[in-house]
Amino acid sequence: MKRDDGRADFDAWYLHAAPRVLASVTLAAGDRWLAEDATAEAFARALERWHQVREMTSPNAWVYTVALNQVRTTARRRGLERRFLRRQRAEVALPAPAPDVALWDAVAQLPPRTRTVVALRYVADLPEARIAEILGITRGTVASTLHDARRRLADRLATTHGGDDR
Amino acid sequence: MSIDEIDRQLAELGNVARRMPLPPLPEIHRRAARRHRARIARRTAGAAAAAVVVSAIAFGGSHLSADRGVTPATQPAGDSTSCLTQQTDPKTLDAALLRLPDHVPDGTAFHQAQGEVTQKGCGFPAAGAFAVDAATSSITKSITLTAYPLETIHDGPGSGECRRISLPGQTGTCIRAGITGEVRWSWRTSGMGGWRSSASWAQDGRVWWAHAAGMSSTELDAALAGLRVSGDRVVRGTLPRGLSPWLAPAQDPEVHTLVGRYLPLPADGGGSSQDDPAGDVQIEVTDDPFSVPQADPMAMSGNGGAVRPVRLVDVGDAKATWREDDVDDFSTLTWQADDGVTVRVRGGRLTLDEALRMAGSIRPVARDDERLTCDADKNPWGFCGG
Q1: Would you place residue B67 in the very low, low, confident or very high pLDDT band (cuts 50, 70, 90)?
Q2: B301 near B331, Cβ under 8 Å?
Q3: Cβ separation A123–B14 shorter than 8 A
Q4: How far is B342 from chain A (nearest CA, A)?
């Protein structure tokens, strides 16, 4: 049976894919509000041209690309002063504390490009090749960025928890 | 902590996705419908849209020389319209924005042009005022005023009322002060040896932030005492005397921008040119009437790092500001052309000489110029809108 121009397919895809997109973009952007807006915009664009997007090899990669581009564009447009305010607010806008909050915070402290790679690898659960495609960088750069990030995180968390070690 | 332990924790990082509330699905459908309607409207009402843009440019033009603002009026508080920038085909922009430099920055190649449309609700500055030292051509003093919706954060570091008008992580003091004609709670912060300071207060459903540079606390107090606001706008004639004033237009228009991107050439055969984002150079040509060429870089300078000098330089007959790269942003040359259009040239490793070379070679481009041909497949970041 034909299903309403694919809307049902889209809705199911959104509910399945959007949580990881939103979490990844939030971590990459360091700003929950900016990430929500970018994620909503990316999926709206996907819906608008769903007949094309659903035929793509990886609709997920497409929506990550659009959302991250939207973050970059919006952040650039709003200007530094407004970014400063958001950066302050971002501390309260990230997900509620949980057992892994220390790691989340540590990742959030990484340079923007590094944390974007980490977010796409570990939150979005994308393979390195796909991350390279989304960010327009080589797979080798993705691998070395992840290697560097893991070392930095190990150092940072060792320092953070140094006094608490049992 | 060992790498193995980091790997174990990273493997569980994705669990956070389950705890984040999604934008509701109907909102996605609404956005898609709005985009569809906007695309249809662009096709059928291009002439009308162009008229709006021209009118916005005319209203924003030469605003540096006049203290224009709104007359006092009661306005609804808390505009909830979200800030949104959408890409569009650069060929659909007004002809006044279609300008690109002939000079390609050293070590880069032209990548592509992109159009952007930013809707209202972006927390644009409401007013600014600044002083320039004629002898040194440097900006010595400035104040910028911006209104945001007053959100109930309740976890700022201030006490009482100041919890709503301070931001987490800030250090400051909560005082009672005469602001806009009444005694109000105000959150004050300072930094950079007192050279920069800010004051916030709540009024009519908004939180106002005044960011000052080069002003003593006495001068800031006097400025806020004499200030009057209406809705999210500053009332004409109430900015500090002796400073060059700027006020935002009474209505938020759409802002249109042409962005031209130049990417660094790959250093060798391996790797992508996009591996080096600091080497990007970008030109933005915008009808943004909220752009304050003199006050913007002053307000931004030193936000997260050392205070950087803001120099005034000449671009043709216009005065431009040159703000050196700091921890947060690219170096930027900004000026306003005589028709009110604002131009920014930015780059992480851009030198002033190179920026001026680009500025001096900016020319109008025809709609059929191949640089305006949007190629969505050119790279993953390229979008043509529509």
Answers
A1: very low
A2: no
A3: yes
A4: 13
